[in-house]
Structure formats: structure tokens, C-alpha cells
Amino acid sequence: GAVVSQHPSWVICKSGTSVKIECRSLDFQATTMFWYRQFPKQSLMLMATSNEGSKATYEQGVEKDKFLINHASLTLSTLTVTSAHPEDSSFYICSARDEKGGYGYTFGSGTRLTVV
Amino acid sequence: AQSVTQPDIHITVSEGASLELRCNYSYGATPYLFWYVQSPGQGLQLLLKYFSGDTLVQGIKGFEAEFKRSQSSFNLRKPSVHWSDAAEYFCAVDGGTDKLIFGTGTRLQVFP
User: Fold this and answer.
1) pLDDT confidence of residue B50
2) What beta strand segments (E) does chain B contain?
3) Residue B99 carries which DSSP code?
4) Do B49 and A6 touch (CB under 8 A)?
């Protein structure tokens, strides 16, 4: 079945630094990927839709300059949290849509970001 | 406004008991419907999905869900719960906007 690999699974960084999270579709091509943020014991909040070869579409209230998304190939999307602050600490999850394999959404295992 | 509602924040059942998790949606047409399960600190695993056709959908791990258009519902069921089913369950909807919107989730606790 469709597999999405997300790396790293956890990261600790100092305040003011940037962190990059990778999301890869391993056995299918994904023209569209999605980035979610999840606070403890809460649901997933869609941050942005990542489109291969074009700019990402951000949800209302999400800072484009803070959360940089790049979707340079059909199998890789990256989320960079720039100038991270403690309030950016969260669980970030990516998802890819397998449009040829039954139109399902497959999720990565998530990245726990802690900013100290 | 489009929305997904999971009325039950937390459900506790005994092992071996039956389970039903509720999900209601608010969309103009029949959306694509999904149920996912999440263990602590993990990503999401797809249990089942409904696009069209038979309104009773079978999924993995013995789960099933029934789409009821008249009630705008897509409730998840399992006849006999196992301790390993304890997790967070999310109903999600793609209402034709090409993105997945999640309900608030239901935390399932299973007692032996």
C-alpha cells in the first residue's frame, strides 16, 4: 500500500533557529501533499496544501513566512519552520494523496518539534 | 459552513463490548468520508473510507462504518472491542475541496 515517510520523528532546536521536516511518498507519486499541526490532545489542523511545482496554499491564519513549504518533486515536500519559538512546539504531520491508488490520504508518522 | 462533528470526546468501554463512535458532517453534497486511528505520538492509520456505493463499509481491524445520508452521519462500529483498540479516533471529510478536514476526535479507553 501507499507509504509516506516523515523525517525526523522528533527534533529539539533552540529558539531562533530553523528546522526542516521532510515528507516523502515512497511508492507513489503525489502531486499534492498536506501539512497538519496537532496540539496535545487536540485534532489535526490543516496548515497548508503543498502542490508540486507551484506555491503552497496556506490556510487562513497560518504565517507563510514562518512555515515555508517546498514541493520540488512528486515524492518530496518539505516544511521549514523559520526562526522557531517555543510556541511553535507541536506535532507536525504530513499527508499525501494517492490519486491513482483509490484516492486515499496516507499520513506520515509525524514530527515532534520542541523549541527551547 | 462545512464542518465535521464528533460529539463524544471520550468513550470508555469494557473489553469485548460493542462500540459505536459517532460522526456527523455538514456539507452540501455527499463528501468522501474517512475514519482514522491514532496511537499516542504516532501518525494516522486509515481504518476505512467511503466514496460511493454500498453504504456499509468494512475496514481493517474488524471495524465497519455506515453512511446515512438522511442523518449526515458516518458512524464507526466494532462488535467486540479489544484492549489494543484503545487510541484516538478521527472522522475526516473531503467535501470536494480537495483537502481533508478532521473532526475533534474521540478518545477510546478500554477496560479489561
Assistant:
1) 93
2) 3-5, 10-14, 19-21, 24-26, 32-38, 44-50, 56-58, 64-68, 73-78, 87-94, 101-102, 106-111
3) S
4) no
pLDDT reading at B1 higher than 70: no
**Dist CA A31 CA A13 (whole Å):** 30
Any idea how long chain A is? 116
Query: Is A34 close to B49, i.e. CB distance below 8 A?
Result: no
In angstroms, rounded to a whole number, what is the distance separating the alpha carbons of residues B43 and A110? 5
A104: which chain B residues are within 8 Å (Cβ-Cβ)? Answer: 34, 46, 49
For residue B92, give how far its alpha carbon lies from the nearest alpha carbon of chain A (Å). 10
Report the C-alpha gap between B102 and A105 in whole angstroms: 12
What's the rounded Cα separation, in Å, for the pair A77 and B22?
A: 33
> Quick one: average pLDDT of B5-21?
97
Q: What CA–CA distance (Å, rounded) separates B93 from B95?
A: 6
All three cell numbers of B2: 462545512
pLDDT digits 0-9 by tens, B54-104 = 999 999 999 999 999 999 999 999 999 999 999 999 999 987 777 888 999
Alpha-carbon gap: A79 to the closest alpha carbon of chain B (Å): 16
